[in-house]
Amino acid sequence: xEAMKTEATLEIERDDAERNELRVAGFDSVAIQRLVxxxxxxxxxxxxxxxxxTHNRHNR
Amino acid sequence: MSRDIDTVLLKTASRCNLNCSYCYVYxxxxxxxxxxxxxxxxxxxxxxxxxxxxLSYSQDRPLSVVMHGGEPLLFGIDxxxxxVSGLRGQLRPDAGIHIQTNGVLLTGDFIDLFAEHDVGISIxxxxxxxxxxxxxxxxxxxxxxxxxxxxxxxEHPAGERIFGGLLAVVDPFSEPAAMYRAMKAxxxxxxxxxxxxxxxxxxPFGKASAASSEYGAWMVALAEEYLADPEPPRIRILDDLMRxxxxxxxxxxxxxxxxxxxVVIDTDGTVTKNDTLKVAYxxxxxxxxxxNITERALPAFLAQEDLDGYYALxxxxxxxxxxxxxxxxxxxxxxAHRWSEESGYDNPTVFCSDQKMLISYxxxxxxxxxxxPLPSALDAAxx
Lengths: 60, 383
Description:
The complex is a heterodimer. By secondary structure, chain A is mostly helical. Chain A has a domain at 20-60. Helices cover 65% and strands 0% of the residues of chain A. A 9-stranded mixed sheet of chain B has the order 7-6-5-4-3-2-1-8-9. The chains are: A mainly alpha, B alpha/beta.
């Protein structure tokens, strides 16, 4: 069965596998990329600081 | 043990123009608000300005002052103007000043004032669930009035600088994707989510038992939306959890094992603990030795040894937490949510199974090995 697969099918499968790998590692997510970027540069943005401090709580 | 204070909550008004069904101030059994003056007096305000000025210069950590209530805008425009201009004059320049409002009274005058003094504004907004729980005193929903306030703030020339974002309370029976879309449609730069308050005595709304994970499943579905969005705003709680999983630090109470020194100043000047402790039992937020800000010795009061127990509350102490591989990410949640009559705060959070589900899901998305197993249904859905 494997031998009968066309080159196109195999390529699609390779792409799918690559996408899954990226998804599992979070690199397909803009939110994760943004966070990883901030952590790796150790530069939490002013914005990040602001939103955390503003969102301390409200009346639940 | 650090004694630095991260956040001072100023109760500028003790009453609210809304009557939200889930409010811990008015609808969770503590009646302390009844004995409080409706608004902070000029005498208390002056003591607050002086003492917070001293505090901000007496510690290393930058201080954050959050105006809160009740509804803090009920304070009125003139007293609010005196307060925020005074705070800017007294506090160290790196101090943050913020307000958490329901938005109904957020007029252009208030926005101008907050823009002038660089006061960050966060608005409470529950999206599609808003009119279920956030009603005014006549029983009318506040959704449209809040949306109008958000629009006013966004259109203000300083809107981008001072609009912190939206804060919502999770309704586990609602549709997370609809909530995400509704919040994103407002154009707000960030969102945060709180769980409904509860503990082992009174389970949070929507939880069938302490072992169930309705909130965890809701948050996982929300995270799916967030992580798939090509243009995501910020979601503070999810960012904090992922930051902790990746070895960073959280930036707010409730997750991670970090001391966030929080004190509250009521309208009569009484200084209390984190006021969410009211949900454990009536008066649970009170210090054993009462102190009023007008006594004018706040840094000395905060340095007393008998405050050790309060400061230590942020540390997970239950045996289950000590042994849990997710201890440093979860942090045992908010102390208020750990309460039981048998063992006080010495329990995991009542949201323990929810937190395990959410953290395990985020670990998987970050390519990290699971520390606790995902429930099988969730495992199949998100494999």
